[in-house]
Amino acid sequence: MTRAPRLLGLMNGTSVDGIDAVLIELSGWPAVGGGGLAPELTGLAPRATVLEHRYTPFADDLRAALLAATRDEARTSEITQLNFWLGEVLAEAAAELSADADLIASHGQTVHHIPAPDGTRGWHTRSTLQIGEASVIVERTGKPVVSDFRAPDMVAGGQGAPLVPFADRLMYAEAGVRRAIHNLGGISNLTYLPGLSEAGVIAFDTGPANALIDEAAELFGGRFDEGGRMGASGHVAETLVHTWRRDEYLAAPPPKSTGRERWNLQRLPGVFELNAADIAATVTAFSAQSVADAYQRFIVPHGLDEVVVAGGGAYNPTFMAQLRTALAPIPVLTFEERGWNSSAREAAAFAILGYYAFQGWRNTLPHTTGARHSVIAGKLSRPAGSGD
Ligand SMILES: Nc1ncnc2c1ncn2[C@@H]1O[C@H](COP(=O)(O)OP(=O)(O)OP(=O)(O)O)[C@@H](O)[C@H]1O
Ligand SMILES: CC(=O)N[C@H]1[C@@H]2OC[C@@H](O2)[C@@H](O)[C@@H]1O[C@H](C)C(=O)O
């Protein structure tokens, strides 16, 4: 009797705040390494159960170093060291839950994501880099680790993102419901699931969610805008919001992906002419409006019954109220209001992607990433003597 696959997903996102470690079980699916065919999604598709979830915040020095690396301020010697340092921190985050897991999937920290190089230095190669050395996690836990999920899609012509929609479809698609799963992390991204069909899935990064708001909060010496209070306290500079909404990334049709290198205060003309409270209010209004604009342009025309929001931005009532107003009458719910676990979502998704990669099954939706074909996203690092 083979037991149901138990998978540990490790996720550290663009907010660079810490690591989500999630242990899931896939009842009714083939055992890890047991071969077989990928289960087709039907109305009765087996879904993942979240067994455990732990969040480990980054220490301040590691967070500062990782943020500097995303901002181009780190030397290659520092990135080399950070790769192994983060590997150790990921292994520690995994430690408590790994004994029970057949497999670990680790996303790693995106330090740069360059799907559309701007030609600086005359370089045109598309590339992406997630660090957090998998060998360290293998050595410390004794488990096989799947990592480095984005490169295979990018070299097949895709954006290397978003990858979570593949798992969203397995977990949240429902016959007869046209639902968007929305993530408000550092960057904002959505997965549109028009019932069970794979063909109609649309997924892309809309632009900023919390990336700009967090930077504004740092001007006050904070880490983020707790409860959206700063965003609610200042005045919104509507003219600036209007100008920023004309950004070419926001107008470009999907598939598309973006990152912090594009969404930072330095790139918003006029922002530093405002006082700190008004910066917070204005970037909050802009970020919420950019999300609503993406729905109006690219999703609402296909028919939309509900938006379900995950990610830290769901805890910012100022952001959520503006989004709800801009999308009314379409209901905007949080994951928790739907009875789902929002904080486990991305780590659970990468656990599923890692499982597919380990089994040798394709695990991307090429029409959402823009790739020429689907790929097996994720590379395998194995412990000695695992026999897998
Ligand atoms: N109580 C809160 N009030 C306001 N904002 C919050 C609150 N809690 C979290 N956030 C916001 O959510 C952010 C973290 O979100 P999340 O953990 O979803 O991001 P991430 O997973 O790192 O990003 P991504 O999904 O883009 O990779 C914080 O940086 C902060 O801006
Ligand atoms: C390059 C990168 O790390 N992209 C992240 C980021 O965070 C949100 C958005 O931008 C999304 O495209 C992606 O992550 C999610 C988890 C994804 O691939 O689906």
Describe this entry's structure for a reader.
With 388 residues, this protein is of the alpha/beta class. It has 2 domains: 6-163 and 343-381, 2-Layer Sandwich (Nucleotidyltransferase, domain 5), CATH 3.30.420.40; 165-338, ATPase, nucleotide binding domain (Nucleotidyltransferase, domain 5), CATH 3.30.420. 36% of the residues lie in helices and 20% in strands. It has helices at 60-70, 76-98, 134-141, 151-155, 164-172, 211-219, 229-233, 238-244, 248-251, 276-298, 317-327, 335-338, 345-359, 366-369; strands at residues 6-11, 18-26, 48-57, 103-106, 109-114, 127-131, 145-147, 178-184, 187-194, 202-208, 306-310, 332-334, 379-381. The strands form 3 sheets. A 6-stranded mixed beta sheet has the order 3-2-1-4-7-13, with helices on both faces. It has a 5-stranded mixed beta sheet with strand order 10-9-8-11-12, with helices on both faces. A hairpin with a 2-residue loop joins strand 8 (178-184) and strand 9. Helix 10 (276-298) packs parallel to helix 11. The longest helix is centred in the N-terminal third of the chain and has 23 residues, at 76-98. The model has no long low-confidence stretch (mean pLDDT 93). The chain binds adenosine-5'-triphosphate and the ligand CC(=O)N[C@H]1[C@@H]2OC[C@@H](O2)[C@@H](O)[C@@H]1O[C@H](C)C(=O)O. The site of adenosine-5'-triphosphate has 22 residues, from helix 6.
